[in-house]
Design a protein that fits this description.
Blueprint: E1 22-23, E2 34-35, H1 37-54, H2 60-70
Antiparallel strand pairs: 1-2
Length: about 90
C-alpha cells in the first residue's frame, strides 16, 4: 500500500516508480521499516553497481533491462504505477 506522502506515475514521459523495495530495518529517521521509491532507489543503485561489476562492458540500458527482468512482479502483469516492475532483485 502506497504511503500518502509517496508519489506515483505517470507524471513524466518515463512512468514511475521503476521498482519497489523493502527496507527490513529501522533507520535513524524512522522507528519502523518503510518501502517505496525512496527505499528502492539506493537498493536499485547498489544492484546496478553489482551488475556493472560482473559485466563491465554493459551500458546503462543493459543493466536497467537486467534489473527489470529480475524484478518480482507484485501487481498486475508488467509495469504499473504503484509497484513499477516489481520488487527489485539481483539478476
Amino acid at each position: 500500500l502506497r504511503a500518502p506522502y509517496s508519489s506515483c506515475g505517470p507524471n513524466s514521459r518515463l512512468p514511475k516508480p521503476d521498482f519497489v523495495a523493502i527496507v527490513p530495518f529501522p533507520s535513524q529517521c524512522r522507528a519502523r521499516p518503510f518501502s517505496g521509491t525512496s527505499a528502492a532507489a539506493p537498493q536499485a543503485a547498489a544492484l546496478a553497481a553489482l551488475c556493472w561489476g560482473r559485466q563491465p562492458t554493459w551500458n546503462a540500458a543493459k543493466v536497467s533491462a537486467a534489473l527489470r527482468a529480475a524484478a518480482l512482479d507484485l501487481g498486475p502483469p508488467g509495469h504499473d504505477c504503484e509497484t513499477g516492475y516489481g520488487l527489485v532483485r539481483l539478476p
